Structures are given as structure tokens and as C-alpha cells.
Amino acid sequence: MAQQDRAVQTRDRIVTAAAGAFYRVGYADASITTIANAAGVTKGALYFHFGSKEEIARAVIDEQHLRVTTAAQEIWIATASPAETMMLMCADLAERLVDDVVVRAGIRLTNGGAIFDPPTRAPYDDWLLTFEELVGGAVGAGEFLPSTDAARLAHFIIPAYTGVQLLSDVLTNMGDLKERIGEMWEILLAAVAEPARLEELRALGARIFGTAG
Amino acid sequence: MAQQDRAVQTRDRIVTAAAGAFYRVGYADASITTIANAAGVTKGALYFHFGSKEEIARAVIDEQHLRVTTAAQEIWIATASPAETMMLMCADLAERLVDDVVVRAGIRLTNGGAIFDPPTRAPYDDWLLTFEELVGGAVGAGEFLPSTDAARLAHFIIPAYTGVQLLSDVLTNMGDLKERIGEMWEILLAAVAEPARLEELRALGARIFGTAG
User: Fold this and answer.
1) Per-residue model confidence as pLDDT tens digits over B143-196
2) Are B2 and B36 found together in one domain?
3) What integer best gives the mean pLDDT of chain B?
4) Is A213 a residue whose pLDDT tops 60?
5) Residues of B in contact with A180 (CB under 8 A)
6) What does the record give as the DNA-binding region (chains A, B) (predicted)?
7) pLDDT > 90 fraction of chain A, expressed in percent and rounded
8) What's the domain range around B68?
9) Which of A30, A136, A150, A187 could, after both became Cys, cross-link A21 (CB 3.0–4.6 A)?
10) What is the CA radius of gyration of chain A?
């Protein structure tokens, strides 16, 4: 294996180990030593890749955002309906939040506004723009009411998702997340779906979020 | 002044100073020394009241929750309409989040699931129960659709509020919070208001959140 590949592997191992430690004991209590031990590397090797704990946390956030946005782009390319695209993206993120510790820790760190100064706003800005475009697409496709203000609705969906997953994390350790996001979409559709498309979109949401009766 | 009053005053001063420090530099970087200096007390006096930084943070959360729920109870007693009560509570909290550093820091600490182990769930549970009762009241008063599931809707409103204020904090330092919460209520009302009451409730929301045209 080339030296560079090994360096990439070591870096990945540190990011994954750090995500586990941040999630398990919290950012404040996860020491560099804990992270190095969990990754099976020396502190020297860790400091070769990262200058500080905050730098590692930012790498966890970046890796989380990369994984989630890559999956989101694939969904966008493969899906014709903008409303379906949004629901599939939300369901995909919910599944990753349950299954992937890097995603779970990265989102928690992003939401923990108390941790960094300045806080991390780039992932939120990305999602706001993506959903503004998709809501606009859903209006154009006759899925959402023509009176829908795309920027305002996107600027509610992203924070609402953030809050639903935050409470699901605190209250059920993400156990009810996908179901709660499905309920969020039921309410959103009742508010903004074109009446003629409401039943079809509701049935689609029930299938996507596994809440079909 | 009796010794007991002085002790209460000192404790309050520490809680307020700690809230400022947690908000300004983040929980991880706010040291006991910083907090004691900001409160104008010795470290010894601080340790007379609190055993650890986490204990101070939990006191900030408790004081925040006490202030906000006391105000919420007054609103509940003074307001006949359950839908109006909910909107007034949301607007009151938005104003306190802008004006009161203890409320602002307390909510940030509550939302920062990464900070404590176990995380603080009591404030969320309180709000979920309060809003479940109020949504039920709004259905009974003919303000919301009879088909509304009170527990499910409350379990969306509280997380959605949490997320809206979290993003408003990160993106605008709470500058757009009241307006964004007003937009949240426009969407909620479109989804669940009894059609015959929709315009009246919309106008009420526009007045409460200051978005009347």
C-alpha cells in the first residue's frame, strides 16, 4: 500500500473513532488521548493529521455532510418528482442518522451551537438552497400550491427537520426519527400540497417513511 | 440584609454570569475562574453554591425553564382561545430568547445534546405535555380540525420550534426569530385550522408575531 493511502486510512480511522467518542461521552469530555486510543494510533500520528480537537470535530462535520449530500445528489438525479425527492432525502438522512456514527455525531456537533465559535453554518446554508430549489420545482410540477413561497417554506422545512431529529435524539436515541419525519411531512403536505395531488403525495410519504397502514 | 438573602443573590449572580459566559465562549471554554470573575465572587464562594461547571449549567437550564414556564402559565390563565395561547407562548419565548441571556443560554445548553450525559429531557417533556393539552383545547374550541391528533401535532410543534430557534441562532443570532416563528404558525394553521376559523387565526398570528401587512 502506498504511503499516501495509508495516511488517508489513518485519517479516516481517526475521524470515525472521534465521531464515536464525541457521540458517546460528549465533545467536552472526549480527550485527544481517548480518540487516539480508540483509533489505534499514537497521539503523534493523530497530531500529524489534526492540530486540535476542534479540527477533528470539524472534520467529522465535513465527512458527515459529504456522505449525506452525495446520497442526496444521487436521489435528486434518480427521482422525477421534486416532492418525492425531498421526502426521499429526508428519509435517507433519517436512516443514516440511525446507522452511521459519523453522520450521527456530525449532525449533533453541527446542532451544538454552544460548542464552536463561530458556529458551523455551511451545512445549513447548503440544505436551505437545495430545498428552496426543490420546493420551487414542486410548485412548477403542480405538486405544491402556486402561492407557495419557496424560500420561506424551505426555511421552515430545514429547521423543522433539525428540531425533529434533535428531540428524537434526546427523547428516543433516534428510535422514532423516521416515523416523526413522516409525521412532519403529513403536516407539511396538508399545508402546501395542491389539493388535487394531496392524496397521491400522502400515500407516497406513507410508503417512503414506512407509515403506510 | 439577612445572610440567606445574600446567599440567594450571590447564587443568582453566578447563574447570570455563567449564562453570559456559556453563550459568549461556549460551554467547553467557559472556565470556573471566568465565571467566578464575571460574577464578582471568589472561586471559594462559587464552590459553596455549585460543585461543578455542569451543576452551574444545569442551574442555568432550570432558571431558564422557570422563567419561561412562569410566563407561559400567566398567558394560559389570561387567554381564552387555546390557539391564541399557543401563539402567545411561542412569541413570548421568542422575545425572551432575544432579550434575556439566561433564557438564551439555557435553551442553547438544553439543545446542545452533545454537552451533557445524560441529556436534559425534562424541559422538552413539559412543553410536549402543555402543547398536547392546548392542541386538544383548540380542537374542542373548534379552532383546529376535529381529525387533529393532539399528541402527534404537539410532538411536531415543539421540535419544530426548537429547530427554528436553533437555526435562527446560528444564522442570524436570533435576529429573525420572531418572524420565523410567525411563518411556522402560518404553515401550521394552513395544515390544521378549521377552514371557517382560518382567516381569523391567521390575522391573530400576524398581529402576535408582528407580521401584519
Assistant:
1) 999 999 999 999 999 999 999 999 998 899 899 999 999 999 999 999 999 999
2) yes
3) 92
4) no
5) 155-156, 159
6) 31-50
7) 79
8) 54-208
9) A30
10) 19
Q: Are residues A130 and A100 in the same domain?
A: yes
Residue ranges in A26-81 assigned as alpha helix (H): 32-39, 43-49, 53-78
Say which range, A138-152, A173-187, B23-37, B65-79, has the weakest mean pLDDT: B23-37
**DSSP annotation of B142:** T
Interface ipTM: 0.89
Question: Cβ–Cβ of A112/B114 closer than 8 Å?
Answer: yes
Q: What is the CATH number of the domain that holds B4?
A: 1.10.10.60
Looking at the structure, do residues A61 and A9 belong to the same domain, yes or no? Answer: no
**Residue B183 is placed in which grid cell?**
411563518
| A115 → closest Cβ in B114, B164, B183 | B114
- CB-based contact B187 A183, cutoff 8 Å: no
In residues, how long is chain A?
A: 213
B112 and B23 part of one domain? no
Confidence of residue B112 (pLDDT cuts 50, 70, 90): low
Residue with cell 464562594: B45
- Give the B window 28-57 contacts with A, CB below 8 Å: 28-29
Q: Which of residues 178-197 of A touch B (CB under 8 A)?
A: 180, 183-184, 187-188, 190-192
Instruction: Quickly list H helices, A26-52.
Output: 32-39, 43-49
- Kindly report the average pLDDT of chain A as a whole number: 92
* Pair (A202, A111) in one structural domain: yes
Whether A162 and B158 lie within 8 Å, measured CB to CB:
no
Would A213 be classed as within a structural domain?
Answer: no
Q: In this predicted model, what pLDDT tens digit does every residue of A49-104 receive, in sequence order?
A: 999 999 999 999 999 999 999 999 999 999 999 999 999 999 999 999 999 999 99
Do B47 and B141 have their domain in common? no
Alpha carbon of A26: minimum distance to chain B alpha carbons (Å): 5
Do residues B198 and B110 both lie within one domain? yes
Co-location of B116 and B196 in the same domain: yes
In the stretch 4-23 of chain B, residues with CB closer than 8 A to chain A read 22-23
Give domain status of residue B22, yes or no: yes
Residues in A touching B22 (Cβ below 8 Å): 114
